[in-house]
Amino acid sequence: MLGEYYFRLSDFDEEKLDNEIDIIAIGHMGCCRALPDYNEILEVYNTCKKHNKKLRLYTPRVPQEHLKFMMEYLQAISMLFESDFFQLVINDIGLLFWMKEKDYKPKQLILGATYSWSAMQNSLYDNIIRDEKEDIKRMYAQVNNNNDIRLSFLKDLNITEIEVPNIKGVLEQVDRIRDNGFAISVFKTFILAGFSRSCVHCKIKKIKASNCNKECEEVFKLDMNQMWDYLTGSFPYFVDKPEINAYYSSLFVHGNMQYRELKNSIKGDEDQLNLMKDTIIKCSGLDKLEKDYEYENKMSGQFIKSS
Amino acid sequence: MSMKIKCPVNSLKVAKTQIALGATELYLGGSSNELANITFGGRGKTTWSGNNCTVNQEELKEIVSYAHSKGVEVSYTVNMPIMYQEIVDQYLKYVEEGINAGVDSIIIGSIESLLLLNKYKYPVKYTASVFTECYNEKFLKWLEEMNVSEVYLPHHLKLKEIEQLSKSTSMDIGVFAHFGCSNSNGACFLYHEAGENINVGLPCRGSYEGYSSSRKLKASNYLDAGTDCSVCSIKQLYDAGVKSLKIVGRGKDITLLGALTKVYKMAVDALDDNFDPDAIKEQAIKLMPMMKTDNCDLRRCKYLSGTPILNSFV
């Protein structure tokens, strides 16, 4: 199956729905303030159903302060859980325990990328394993969920599908995930680089997160230009080390979520997935920015204004 | 009235120094012959510059013996962020080496390790590492069911949340006293101190050029969300139910670590003596002048409501 993730709900347009797309994804992996409200979910869900597509809703990690809100939020949309046209992505294990307690069993319950990752997502991967034996190198590439203990735990929490990084070395080793009956989803061109409680958009726009009005709908691209080195510098400890910058560039920030563009050299092949069962998700927000950014570079920066 | 100060060590010499300066618990990781640069203990074997982050089996026994002779407990890191199925036997062997050396607790870092070790019911206390990412009471409750008796909470929980979690459990709650990560530890891929042999500094604190689809932003530390010091908030943390303060830096120089231990010991001791944050801060700066420039002046205070970065917390 193919999916399209709309970071900005307003980009979703029924008139322009792509026939090739089976899944429309909305929501946020890191921030409950950025989630669509009940009416928006219902509207997109009904549109999806009308066009025989599924709605995939991303939900975030939940700090204690927002736990009550998220439980009520899920309760409010629980009538969709039994639908074949609805998929729920969970990024908080505490919420999964609560759903089990409440006997909420969405037909399609997906474990999100914040709980499903490989050390290969880290750009120092090759360096770190430089001296390890071949079998250790291969092992270290695996996604954390390719593990029977973990899969049994996830099955008990009613998970049906697991997001994994779209990396060739990772997809070569998902045998246990498949053998245990889980489907797999990947993001086509990006991997998770990290997430924080702190929202970069709120920082840049100097607003309190509690007053946020979905500021993160505009994605930012970040490229390191100076390394932080406590040992060689003085405050703010920024030093020029161009060789290090490359490790931490092409990062894309969606509020408190950080993604990294997948390098072609490690990107997974489509034939590693079974598209009858598995899912490839495109992120229009990230893909669009990447295109715009390339365009601006080609124009020698004439359209780039310093803030 | 007291809080534990859990300090990192990477040798017997450092252990002796840390105890002399006020550490009330030590933590450390061992190395393993099966692995070259990575370890079972959540850090690389050495730092990029070659400083040890681990101790060998003999030294582990000596440290445990010395610490116990001083009434200090030792915690052993078994918090590899992923416990791979292929090396379960080696992992268990590593865990048992620590237990046989006499450690008092083990620090566990992943769901699969907790599930595995819960079955073995080793005769030590189980501590959940920050890698387990305990953000709310639902997850906390599960940790309790896994026989965990102590948990280190994520860097970015707010004081009120810490208090709520503390009230909802019988487990001991620990927080990081000094230095802090910008990202959530369990799924951050801006790695450092993971066994690499190059200096990448702290990638989240670097300067980044930013671009939107319509403009270029001036370079800044956009990903830096670190808060670094909790000296002034020790009393609030104590009142919130925090039982343990952890100082990070297994591969860091003892000059820095020792100074931090001394500062936090002084602050914790003041809990018994009308804790005055201004006086404590003044004393801390006397002991460690860099605290003023790197923490106070930048308002990088952990847990205090006036800390600017807290405004951006979702």
List its traits.
A: 307 residues, alpha/beta, TIM Barrel, 8-stranded parallel barrel, 5-stranded antiparallel sheet, 11 helices, disordered C terminus, B: 314 residues
In total, how many domains does the architecture of chain B comprise? 1
Major sheet attributes of chain B: 8 strands, parallel, barrel
Mean pLDDT of chain B: 95
Looking at CATH, which topology of chain B would you report?
Answer: TIM Barrel
Low-confidence stretches of chain B: none
What is the CATH architecture annotation of chain B? Answer: Alpha-Beta Barrel
Work out the helicity level of chain B.
25-40%
Total helical segments of chain A = 11
Q: Report the uncertain regions of chain A.
A: 295-307
> Could you give the order of strands across the largest sheet of chain B?
1-2-4-5-6-7-8-11
Count of extended strands of chain A? 13
Beginning-to-end CA distance, first to last residue of chain B: 34 Å
Radius of gyration of chain B: 19 Å
CATH class of chain B: Alpha Beta
Entry summary:
The complex is a heterodimer of chains A (about 300) and B (about 325). Chain A has about 300 residues and is of the alpha/beta class.
